[in-house]
Amino acid sequence: MAPDLDDQNLAFRTVTRSSLTTSTMLRSGSRLCTQISRSSRCLARLNSTQASHAANSSSSSSTQEPRTVSFGFRTVPEDAKESLVKEVFNSVASKYDLMNDATSFGVHRLWKDTFVSSLRPGRRGPQKCIDVAGGTGDIALRILDYAREKYADRETTVDIVDINAEMLKEGYRRFKKTMYHNTPQVAFHEGNAQLMSQFPDNTYDIYTIAFGIRNCTSIPDVLKEAHRILKPGGTFACLEFSRVGNPLLSTLYDQYSFSVIPLMGTVLAGDRDSYQYLVESIRKFPPQQEFAQMIRDAGFATGKDEDGGAWTDLWGGIASIHKGVKL
Ligand SMILES: C[S@@+](CC[C@H](N)C(=O)[O-])C[C@H]1O[C@@H](n2cnc3c(N)ncnc32)[C@H](O)[C@@H]1O
């Protein structure tokens, strides 16, 4: 059994099988970053690792090329991405809410409200929900508030899952100030969206993931696990930054993202590189249509391939809500 995360008597249930498997997968990535407390230093080391990868592959043609994925605009070995992402969120956790409000002028709150109210949790009686990459608990709290305020439902539950213990601690702190603290309505789990073996098949009515999936190494693996743990008829719902259709808005948004957000990261959080990564990762995420197809490939039914069908654009596509139903 993995050691309990909870150094403050927190109700975190730690992952058993999945953390072991993940830790095996991450061993090489972790080695890369163990001595590094800040993502910026980790990124610097990553550059030299990439150089050495290149040197190794040119000196030995028999060596198999490592599988690679994007980490923002960089291409990194697949097994290094998770630890790099962890470093980013370790670094931003304590300033995450402040930075979210500053960089989006608070708009992320409206998007999250729209996201949760579109799901109408509690409408058909108490529901079992899971919020993956749920870190700060923003979505989980909205789900429970919505069910209680609209339907006087105090039995809907949310399991919050995140790969990063620091982000979970921020969420726990937030929940501590609410009526849901120490109730069966909420539980925190450290775990990987790609490997949810601690959660049984056909368990949940609603699966949410907000601004999390683009940080995962394998989107198909996340979708596969979401499909497995949802009950037949259950809903997959993803809120994520997406593609802006209008060229003028797209140019303005690009300029804002690439100049203002990393600058705010430097000024408010003392961490330019993490915010640079967050902006870059948005551009690497598949556009609406492509992501909708990935959701269907995982076995979900979606609406038509258009805004208002398989997805709903928010603010011209700056963010987008995708949904799928497990048949
Ligand atoms: C941008 S934050 C979003 C947090 C929250 N959902 C929100 O909307 O405010 C992304 C979260 O994804 C988590 N994350 C990244 N990769 C993950 C993975 N493979 N499995 C689970 N969580 C992951 C990070 O630790 C971080 O807490």
Structural descriptors:
48% helix; disordered N terminus; binds S-adenosylmethionine; alpha/beta; Rossmann fold; ubiquinone; methyltransferase; nine-stranded mixed β-sheet; 327 residues
Ordered list of secondary-structure elements with their pairings:
Layout: E1 12-14, H1 17-33, H2 39-59, E2 68-71, E3 74-77, H3 78-92, H4 96-104, H5 107-119, E4 128-132, H6 138-151, E5 157-162, H7 165-176, E6 186-190, E7 204-210, H8 219-229, E8 230-241, H9 247-269, H10 272-284, H11 288-297, E9 300-301, E10 311-314, E11 319-326
Parallel strand pairs: 1-6, 4-5, 4-7, 5-6, 7-8
Antiparallel strand pairs: 2-3, 8-11, 9-11, 10-11
Helix pairs in contact: 1-3, 2-3, 3-10, 4-9, 5-6, 9-10
The structure holds S-adenosylmethionine (SAM).
S-adenosylmethionine (SAM) is lined by residues 85, 89, 132-136, 138-139, 162-164, 167, 192-194, 210-212, 215-216.
Structure description:
By secondary structure, the chain is α/β, with parallel strands linked by helices. The chain has a domain at 70-87 and 108-244 and 287-326: Rossmann fold (3-Layer(aba) Sandwich). It is built from 11 helices and 11 strands. The strands form 2 sheets. Strands 1, 4, 5, 6, 7, 8, 9, 10 and 11 form a 9-stranded mixed β-sheet that branches. The longest helix is centred in the last third of the chain and has 23 residues, at 247-269. Mean pLDDT is 84; it is low at 1-62. It binds S-adenosylmethionine. Its main location: mitochondrion. Component of a multi-subunit COQ enzyme complex, composed of at least COQ3, COQ4, COQ5, COQ6, COQ7 and COQ9. Methyltransferase required for the conversion of 2-polyprenyl-6-methoxy-1,4-benzoquinol (DDMQH2) to 2-polyprenyl-3-methyl-6-methoxy-1,4-benzoquinol (DMQH2). It is a peripheral membrane protein.
